[in-house]
Amino acid sequence: GESVGLHLPTLSVQEGDNSIINCAYSNSASDYFIWYKQESGKGPQFIIDIRSNMDKRQGQRVTVLLNKTVKHLSLQIAATQPGDSAVYFCAENSQSGGSQGNLIFGKGTKLSVKP
Amino acid sequence: GAVVSQHPSWVICKSGTSVKIECRSLDFQATTMFWYRQFPKQSLMLMATSNEGSKATYEQGVEKDKFLINHASLTLSTLTVTSAHPEDSSFYICSARKPGVYGYTFGSGTRLTVV
Questions:
Q1: Is residue A35 very low, low, confident or very high in pLDDT (cuts 50, 70, 90)?
Q2: Which of A38, A67, B8, B64 is deepest in the core (most CB within 10 A)?
Q3: Which of A88, A102, A109, A110 is most worth mutating to test chain B (most B CB atoms within 10 A of its CB)?
Q4: In angstroms, what separates the C-alpha of B82 from chain A's closest C-alpha?
Q5: Exposure class string for A75-109: b at 16+ Cβ within 10 A, else e
Q6: Which residue of B has its CA nearest to A42?
Q7: Mean pLDDT on A86-90
Q8: Beta carbons of B104 and B95 less than 8 angstroms apart
């Protein structure tokens, strides 16, 4: 079946550095992508999203890049802080036809920030 | 924003008993809610889509008679794990999408331990 996967299962960065988390997707029909942050024992928390008609979207300290040619998604976190330590998931959704659809999650990347 | 409340946050039950988990959309109406299951250090796997006033749609491999879903109102969906076994121990998470709000909002999850 179609799936969303990640290149790196773990990422360790120094506090203050920038972090880049990557994700590959395989469903060419997906037109909406979301990055979530999940802390231990909690539900996923929305970070940022992007639609397929865009290739870049910026939020506060975060940027999502979408490369539809190679079906690749990335999350960039600027000036990474200890509070950013968590597992990050990308998720894809096909909203064609107006349906809500459901989210397919990638495997997740654990981000550890060293003080 | 959008708030999804999930209850209980954790539950321990004996093998053979049933457990009900509630998912509520607090500030919006949700005709569709989603139930996920997450094992330790793994990603979220969609179990079923809960539809208000109609039968839930289950993903392949998910036993509908074991995981009973009821979506009786526009703000409440319940997941009942029937005749629970230790292998059902997992983190169960629900989500819904509020129209006009980015992304899908997730509940805080329910940690189920079957002993």
A1: very high
A2: A38
A3: A102
A4: 23
A5: bbbeebeeebbbbbbbbbbbeeeeebbbbbbbbbb
A6: B108
A7: 96
A8: yes
Nearest to A32 by CA among A84, A87, A98, A78: A98
Among A6, A34, A46, A92, the strongest candidate for a mutation testing the B interface, having the largest count of B CBs within 10 A, is: A46
- Kindly report, residue by residue over B68-91, the tens digit of the pLDDT: 999 989 999 999 999 999 999 999
- What is the arithmetic mean of pLDDT over A44-61? 95
Query: pLDDT tens digit string along B7-18?
Result: 999 999 999 999
Residue B60 carries which side chain, given as an amino acid letter? Q
CA distance A81 to chain B (A): 22
> What's the DSSP call for residue A84?
G
Handedness of CA B64, B65, B67, B69 (dihedral sign): positive
In angstroms, the CA B46 to CA B63 distance is 13
CB B69 within 8 A of CB B92: no
Residues of chain B neighbouring A36 (CB-CB closer than 8 A): 106
Q: What is the pLDDT of residue B102?
A: 72
Q: Beta strands of B1-115 (E only): which ranges?
A: 4-7, 10-13, 19-25, 32-38, 44-51, 57-58, 67-73, 76-81, 90-96, 105-106, 110-114
